[in-house]
């Protein structure tokens, strides 16, 4: 933790000038706003005869967990929808077609801005927000950073093709995130369109669509002719209604960064999605390790907006630097407070980079234990042949008991891939490999994400090991 001379003086109730003098005697020439490191700060504290008391994170940083909105302040908010599926199955085309159904866009005649998300007003007057970055990488990366902005996932499957590797990845990611799914079988205008085949193949992944008497909504669409688009929108609205999506619009805003960049003319820009509250021009905020003041906001139609309510995506101008996707923007009461929190986080980020320990399963389990009585133990399984995958998954499922439920997030044949590692990192799950190893791309990121991985060539060694781990992890907690 680093601290400015002025802040340290305030905390010790000493004159800042006296601290500067002491530092000078120690050979350091500093001003009041100079940041000094922890060791130097401790030396000073001792020199002035005070006790060293380290502040905890929550003393300085913003703790939103204590800041819960009362039920009566909650109002309905539009759903936030992400589109996932295999490359070339029509995600971009569908996003464009859905954008085209916006009843406001025609009137305003504004220029479409690509800001990473857009909102449409439906014929019935309801609003829907779409994340305009197709693909599950964005979704997973946000989730890894703890940001869950997506309420509903549309799984796009081309009806003239089948379930492809990225379709299955998208299914796994969506399931792991616990986000409800609507299946859109696209390209219905094509002569080869065969939606029934898709529905049947989805059964293998435990997705039973309505047409197969299940409860996952499905719809046939064509981005080319527009057929089925209204049906899809109706299903999104129905799903949203079931979910009772609400937040408090009348408070200081909190938003999630979905895209950020440095613009040559406008400086650092971030597209944010408002989670709760209303963001206003002039608001002072912290976003990740940056602070700033809202100078202007633009919507996806390129129009200036003075206020942004929940679920509206807006591009924010007035940041001190470029934040990261997944960062939370929080409005604070003063510039001093914004700078203090940003500086604190910057310091934390530097120390974390050098000292961070792998996120331990122990931590994860105690966190989970606090929340629910049955703990889920997530795991990913990769093996060399389908027969082994099935045998391992069956054996692992038998390890579940009343306290710990083993949940195989994904299983499959072949080397451990980048996507497996991403899913494991986002879910805090280990990966077990049976006669397989990670491929080169996966190896590159394993270290970065601190994903735990074990390899076996005898099935009962694998199950024994997992059983021990489950017991061991749970054991000391009781
Ligand atoms: P993405 O990679 O999933 O974003 O897929 P794209 O939206 O880029 O679509 C891939 C290809 O399929 C393009 O050549 C599109 O023109 C075509 N395509 C997408 N949707 C439809 C559709 O509904 N009907 C037809 N006939 N072609 C489509």
From TrEMBL:
Its main location: cytoplasm. GO terms for molecular function: GTP binding; GTPase activity; translation initiation factor activity. One of its GO terms (cellular component) is cytosol. It is found in: Cytoplasm. It comes from the Bacteria. Keywords: Cytoplasm, GTP-binding, Initiation factor, Nucleotide-binding, Protein biosynthesis. Residues 76-246 form the Tr-type G domain. GTP binds at residues 85-92, 132-136. The keyword Calcium does not apply. One of the essential components for the initiation of protein synthesis. Protects formylmethionyl-tRNA from spontaneous hydrolysis and promotes its binding to the 30S ribosomal subunits. Also involved in the hydrolysis of GTP during the formation of the 70S ribosomal complex. Belongs to the TRAFAC class translation factor GTPase superfamily. Classic translation factor GTPase family. IF-2 subfamily. This is Translation initiation factor IF-2. The chain holds residues 294 to 771 of 870 of the full protein.
């Amino acid at each position: 933790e680093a601290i400015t001379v002025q802040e340290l003086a305030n905390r010790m109730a000493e004159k800042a000038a006296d601290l500067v003098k002491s530092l000078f005697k120690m050979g350091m020439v500093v001003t009041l706003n100079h940041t000094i490191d922890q060791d130097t700060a401790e030396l000073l504290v001792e020199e002035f005869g005070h006790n060293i008391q380290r502040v905890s994170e929550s003393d300085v940083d913003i703790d939103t967990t204590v800041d819960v909105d009362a039920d009566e302040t909650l109002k309905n908010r539009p759903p936030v929808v992400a589109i996932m599926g295999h490359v070339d199955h029509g995600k971009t085309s569908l996003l464009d077609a859905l954008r085209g159904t916006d009843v406001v866009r025609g009137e305003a005649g504004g220029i479409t801005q690509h800001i990473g998300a857009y909102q449409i007003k439906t014929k019935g007057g309801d609003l829907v927000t779409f994340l305009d970055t197709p693909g599950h990488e964005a979704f997973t990366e946000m989730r890894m950073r703890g940001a869950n902005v997506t309420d509903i996932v549309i799984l796009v499957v081309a009806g003239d093709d089948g379930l492809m590797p990225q379709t299955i990845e998208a299914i796994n990611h969506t399931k792991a995130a616990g986000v409800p799914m609507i299946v859109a079988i696209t390209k219905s205008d094509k002569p080869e369109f065969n939606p029934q085949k898709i529905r049947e193949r989805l059964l293998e992944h435990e997705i039973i669509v309505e047409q197969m008497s299940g409860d996952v909504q499905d719809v046939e669409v064509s981005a080319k002719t527009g057929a089925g688009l209204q049906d899809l929108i109706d299903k999104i609205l129905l799903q949203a209604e079931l979910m009772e999506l609400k937040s408090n619009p009348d408070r200081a805003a909190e938003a999630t960064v979905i895209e950020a960049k440095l613009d040559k003319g406008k400086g650092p820009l971030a597209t944010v999605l408002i989670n709760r509250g209303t963001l206003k021009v002039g608001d002072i905020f912290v976003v990740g390790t940056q602070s700033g003041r809202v100078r202007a906001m633009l919507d996806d139609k390129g129009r200036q907006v003075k206020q942004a309510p929940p679920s509206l995506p807006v591009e924010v101008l007035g940041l001190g630097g470029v934040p990261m996707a997944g960062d939370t923007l929080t409005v604070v009461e003063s510039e001093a407070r914004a700078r203090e929190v940003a500086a604190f986080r910057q310091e934390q980020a530097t120390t974390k980079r050098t000292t961070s320990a792998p996120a331990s399963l122990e931590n994860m389990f105690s966190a989970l234990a606090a929340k629910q009585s049955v703990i889920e133990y997530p795991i990913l399984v990769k093996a060399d042949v389908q027969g082994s995958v099935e045998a391992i998954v069956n054996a692992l499922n038998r390890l579940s008991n009343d306290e710990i439920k083993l949940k195989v997030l994904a299983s499959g044949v072949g080397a451990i891939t980048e996507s497996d590692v991403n899913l494991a990192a986002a879910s805090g799950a280990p990966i077990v490999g049976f006669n397989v190893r990670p491929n080169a791309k996966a190896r590159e990121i394993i270290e970065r994400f601190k994903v735990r991985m074990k390899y076996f060539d005898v099935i009962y060694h694998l199950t024994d090991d997992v059983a021990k781990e489950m017991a061991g992890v749970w054991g000391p907690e009781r």
